[in-house]
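Subject: Sanity check before I submit

Could someone independently write out the structure tokens for this chain? I want to compare against mine line by line before I put it in a report. The sequence has 332 residues.
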Amino acid sequence: MNKLNVSSKMHLFIAISAILVAIGLAVGLVCQFVAGGFFNSGAGYASYKAVIVDYSMPTTEDEVMEICEGAFSANGVDYYSFQTAETSGGNEVEFRFTTSADTAALKAAAESISSEIGIESDLLGYAKYSEYTGEFGGTTDMMYAGIALAAAVVFQFIYFAIRYKFTMAIAAFVADLHNLLIFYALLAITRVQVSVSVVALSVLVVLLTMICCGILFGKMRKNFRQDSYKAMSSFEQVDAASRESLKPVTLINVVLASAFVLVLIFGLFAGAGIYGLFMPCACGVMAVAACQYGTLFFTPSVYSRMKLRADKHAASKVSKYSGAKKAAKSAE
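---
Independent answer below. Compare away.
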């Protein structure tokens, strides 16, 4: 821990981050053309066409499935999935089709199914055609998530500029962009499905970055009260603060990652849908990992260069001021 020196390894961390982002971009572009999406869209964002069949007893599920499959076959359409559910009036089966499926054929199949499961005036069931459009990035909740994300970044920048220094605010802003890029790259690489809850984790990345950067810069501001710390070089000052921040930042991230894992485990034992919990929890762990790497390694290495330039600029201003003062005294 005492030998952690990240300031001198800026080029290494930039290379690592660039490679991760490049791999994520490459995987995303390949999947954009092959799998039909840069990111895997979750159930809330998958566009599809559907035929929904509602029925009641004595009509059975097996009878409905046989009738539906016959109607779909007769109209030349194939469903890719179906799900059943109980309703207040009986039962329901939803057959899902790709968006390229023939709408006229699906409507014809729905009418055929309705005529099959309905008996004259005593209608035991009916079928209807439905279409769900949920393209990723084009919904109101996505817009609100984007506004929240932008607001979080702006708030962090203003907060750090007021509480710390302008260079620290810039470093925190760079950390936000870096950690978000790494997070999105991990999503693209792992092909984790993206939904509203996952998009909301982008705001968590910014807030967690703010907390971790606050710990790092808070250590530096506290250490500046010591003359021995002031005498250090810019790189040594940043490395010292990084070493002191390692334990609290890691503790926060480990606790948060453990919380996501525990939610997944408890959900499994409680009988909740493991698939619905896995995606947000997996993304939460990746968000924490991006913040851990970005805050403790990438950000200090970049900020040390910014601080070095700022210190040189300040020293130059002091030198010019002192020289001008001496020249004024000599002129007198």
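---
OP: Matches mine. For the report I'm noting this point. The chain has a mean pLDDT of 82.
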